[in-house]
Structures are given as C-alpha cells and as structure tokens.
Amino acid sequence: MQPAATQPRRGTLLGLALLVACAYAAFAHGAVRIPDETWLQAGLDVAALLAAAAWLSRREGLQTTREGWLGIALLTAFGAWCAITMLWSVAPDQSWLEANRSLAYALAVMLAVGLGTMSGQAIERIAVGWLIVAAAVALYALAGKVAPGALAADEPIARLRAPLQYWNALALVCAMGLPVALRVVTETGLNPRPRLAALAATYVLLLTMGLTYSRGGFVALAVALIVVTALGRRRLRGLGAFALAGVAAGPALAVAFGLNGLTDNNATLGARIHDGRIFGAVALIMLGLLLAAGNQALRFERHRRLSPAFEAWVWHALAAVAAVVVLGGVAYVAADHSRVWHAFADVKQDRQYDPARLVSTNSGNRWVWWKEAAGAFSDKPLGGWGAGSFGTVHLRYREQPLGVQQPHNVELQWLSETGIVGLVLALGAIALLFVAAATRLRRLDQPRERELAVALLAAAAGWLVHGVVDWDWDIPAVTLPPLIFLGLLAARPGPRRAAAEPFADPEPSGGAVRAVALGGIALLLCGALASAALPAISQSRTEAAETASNPDTAARDADVAARLNPVAVRPLLVASSIEVRRGRLVEARKRLLEAAGRQPENPEVWYRIAQLSQQLADRGSYQTAIARFAQLDPVNPVTGALERQALAIQAPANASATATGTPLPGAPLTTPAPPASP
C-alpha cells in the first residue's frame, strides 16, 4: 500500500491535467474543430486511464451524492444518445463528432469528481488555476491590440477574439474568471500582493470583455455577480472591488473605442501599431492608478471597518439604482415596443464590428435561427434530426439565405437535433450536477474554500445562462471549465487513508478483480480514443488528397479517408473531383451516388450530382438532382436559376444514364454559380 502522502500529489497532478486541458482548449481556437478537439479528447482519455489505475491501485473511487451520480449517468447517456442518432441523422458525420464531444464532457466531470474526492484542496487549486488561465487568455488577447505587429499582424477583424477566434467565447471565459478574481480580492486572510494581483486580473478581464463588444458576455457576468453576491460573504467588498476595476477600465475602453486603428476592420498595420501604443499606455496608467487605489483600500480595511448603518445605506442605494435601471428599461421597451421588437426579430445586417452594438437590441438574426430550430423540432420532436445536424437541417426551414451551423441557443439546438429525449438527458444532467454542487456548498465550513466554491458555482451559472444566446456546447473552451467546476463541487471528499504498516502486504486482496476492472476501463477508453481519432485521420487524408499533385496518390488518399469515416461525404466528394480530373466521369458519378447513399438529405451532394450530370449531358439525372437540391435548400440564391434551367430541358424520363451508367450525347449545359456555403 502506498503512503498517504502520495494522495495530495496525485490530486495535484490530476488538477494540473484538467487545468492544462482548459488552457489548451482556449489557445487552440476554442478546440471547436478537429484535430484540435481530437487532441483534447485524447488527453482526457489518457488522464482518465492514469487516474483509474491510481484509484484502483489504492482501492479508491469516486464519491458524490445521489444527484451527482445520476447527473453523470444522464450526461453519459446523452453522449450515447448522440451516437444513436447517427442511425437517422441527416449529417451522421457531425453526429459522430457530437457524440465524441459529449462523452468527453462526461469523462471530464468524472475526473473532476475524482479530483474532489481525493484532494481536500482541490477547490482552491482549481479556482486559482482557472483564474490564471482566464487572465492569461485575456492578456494574450489584449497583447494583440497593444502590439499587433508581434502577435496579430494578419488579423483583419477589429473586434477582439483571439485566441479563441470567437468574441463571445472570449468574453465568456473572462466572465467566468471574474467571480474567482473578486473572491481572491476580498479574502482578508491573504497577503496584499495576491489580492492586488487579483484586482489587476479583474481589470484585465473587464478590459478584454469590453473590447469583445459581447452583450451575451456581460449578461453572463451579471448572472455570475448576482450568484456570487447572493451566496457569498463580503458582498459589499466584492462589489466595491468590481466597481473600482470598472472605473479604471472605463477610460481605457473610451480611448480604444475612439481610435480607428482599434475599431476599423482591415485597418493598416501601421495605424494599428500607432493606436495600439496609445491604448497600451492609457491601459497601463489606469492599471497603476487602480493598484494604488487598491493598496489604499487594503490599508483602510486593516485599520477601519464600515459601520452596519453605512453598509445598510449602501445596499439601499444600490437597490434603488437597480430598480431605476430595470424600470427605465421596461419603460423604454413599453414606449416603443414595436420598434424594439422589430429590431430584435427582423433579419438585418448586424453591426457586429461596431462598439455601439453593446447597447443595441438587435438579436444578430438569432430570432430567425430560433424559429428554424423550433420548426425542425416540430417535425421530429422525439429524436430530432441527428446530433450536430442543424447546419444541414436549417437549409430547408430558412426564409432568408443566411448560413449558420447552430441556432445560437443550446436548448433549441438539443431539441432540433436530438429531440425531447436529448433535451431531457442533457438538461437533466446539468440540473442534477447543479443540485449536487449546491448540496456540497451548504456543507462547506472553511471560509476560503466556501467563497471560492461560490465563485466556481457562479461561473457555471453564467455559462448556463449564456447558452441561451449562443452555441457554447460546441465550444469545449467555454463548456469544459464549468463542467469541471460542477464535477468538483459535486464530489464528496473521502477520509485520508492512514500510512501503510512497514511490513504490510504490498498486494492487498482483490488484485485480480481490480486488474480486470482496469482492463475493462482501458478497453472503453481505447474505444473512445479510436472514435475520436478516426474522423481526424480521415479529414487529414482528405486534405492530403485535395492537395496531392499526383492523381493516383490523391485517389488512394481519398479512398482511405472514405473508409476511415464511413458516414462522411467529403472524402467521396473529393474522390469524385479527382476522378473528373482524371477524365473518369462514370467513376466520378459512382462516388457521388455513394455520397448520396450516405447522406441523402445533404443538398451539396445533389448539387454536385447535377453538375456532373451536365458534363455527361444526362438530362434526366440533372433534373432529378436539381429537384432534390431545391427541396433541401429552397432559398439558396442559385436554386431559382437551377430550377428554371431544369424545367427548360425536355427529355424522356427513361433517358437518364444514372441507371445504365452510359452518358448521353449532347452539349454541356450552362452551370450557374455554386450554392452558398451553409
């Protein structure tokens, strides 16, 4: 038996592994695409295998409440349900990726529960570690503004988005880091230096959020502040620290919003460097003033305390201000409700690169996408259209030629893609994890640990609300951290094992059973690793086929890619293009027909079939393909032209070469422009 001293070390290593996973996801552009997401999932699989071996060797295991176990079970069941939807999915390759992602989330929650079980300091370490990760992300983002020549010379977008490459995700990372920063600032048991460092982190996170222009990020921050204030202690100090950092960030943001080099897309690098230096100087000056004011506040705190009467007056004043803001907002909406509603619901060009959007009521076309998701759900309410399929499904429901991959609402995405079953499993899992976390929170008696636990719970609450207006579930960089927080808070720390006797049997009883259990776990994790790797390898071979100069080599790569991912159509589309280059049109058509067999409701496949039918002068096949394409993507800008051209062609139905494999003679038809990418 190993000595108990090794237990904290294993907890440290596992906690470090989870934090590294969060940092990797953030700096790998959110880990939203393969192979970045594949590497993240592989890392979690390896960490799970090592953790399982360590737990089994010491006859330890995960400990959580009944709600925690049920939440883990439902989250795992949701991942399995995503895999099951591949049977009827209109985009089974995306369903495969969704299943891998959801199962990886479930695995991360289990690892977090294990960490919380084995380490009594896990909450503090994860909270502080996450603050470091969030601050590092924010500093990297700001560095691209201050020194664009070194970090972002080729960035054409003024709105801050690096390193996640999505502004709303960057804002959410900052919003989830702020509750922890405020709890550290108000922790009176710490030395002034870490508290001032946390105050500086609060300033950096707020400054970064402002430059993302993300309204959803500030909504998530407001929810997190409400939770951390309502459940935590030192409420007034936390709000004071937040206000102090906000006052310091205000002038820096005002300067940034007034500089064309920081707000204009495609600004010259020279203008960006010049204005970035001005912004950097102002930001540093305000940071120095903030730290000076913070240091004075800490000195005041050590020598004087606010009277209860003054604190009560401040709370009454804050309540009055909040009431005025809410009533003012309600009055504004009521006075001009028609304009506000049309601004929210109508399809229009979103001013997404204008800082003024922070006070806009434009939904960014979300209302349109929500209606499309609701329509898709109403047609297939039980099992949905298949996990990850909204990018394909919405084409048949859209009324405007707007391309999107998610409805920008996690719950509606689950409903449209996985049906009521998927929604119940996913929401039930998250709700139960919140219940388990709240139960643990009530039992914490260590003040510092409890305050940091409240901060983590507040961050998770902000993430949950933010999912109503965005596609957070598909962004591991913003979903992995809150799920880790919930798993950590749901854990029940076990008692520390006593040190082993000097001459104890190093191989306690039950070794064979544990070996079998470890073998079973290893097989499951190897299966998960293979499931994550196959789509990534297939994509890599597909990309190699697209760039290969030798047609034979390209054809082999495409064929391997198609075999590695038997539900994807992209390898077959690439293989068809290669056969066209080789002059083998009939073989190219066979590849396209195979793609249509894999995904018969993919409009791009039918468009490609129509193109090839033109080259073969196969009028019947052309008409059939265009009719199918128009059915699946009726408002595509090229659909009308294609339908008119198909109607103008007169050919007997039995003249199609699709069934005979023999191309018809005749001149090629005129091909309209390709359809817009969804």
Overview of this structure, please?
The structure is a single chain. This protein has 678 residues and is mainly α. Among the domains are: 123-305, no CATH class; 308-365, no CATH class; 536-655, Tetratricopeptide repeat domain (Serine Threonine Protein Phosphatase 5, Tetratricopeptide repeat, Alpha Horseshoe). Helix content is 71%, strand content 0%. It is built from 26 helices and no strands. The chain has helices at 6-27, 36-57, 66-84, 92-118, 122-146, 148-151, 167-185, 192-212, 215-231, 235-257, 260-263, 269-303, 308-335, 337-345, 366-379, 390-397, 410-443, 447-466, 476-490, 511-547, 551-564, 570-581, 585-598, 603-615, 619-632, 639-648. Helix 7 packs antiparallel against helix 8, helix 20 (511-547) packs parallel to helix 22 (570-581) and helix 24 packs antiparallel against helix 25. The protein is globular, with a radius of gyration of 28 Å. It starts with 5 loop residues before the first helix and ends in a 30-residue tail after the last helix. Residues 1-6, 498-506 and 651-678 have low confidence and may be disordered.
Low-confidence stretches: 1-6, 498-506, 651-678
* Class inferred from helices and paired strands: mainly alpha
Percentage of residues in helical conformation: over 70%
N→C terminal distance: 58 Å
**Number of discrete helical segments:** 26
Q: How large, in whole angstroms, is the Cα Rg? A: 28 Å
Shape: globular
Whole-number mean pLDDT:
88
Percent of residues in beta strands?
Answer: under 5%
Largest sheet: none
Order of helices and strands: HHHHHHHHHHHHHHHHHHHHHHHHHH
| Quantity of strands, as a count | 0
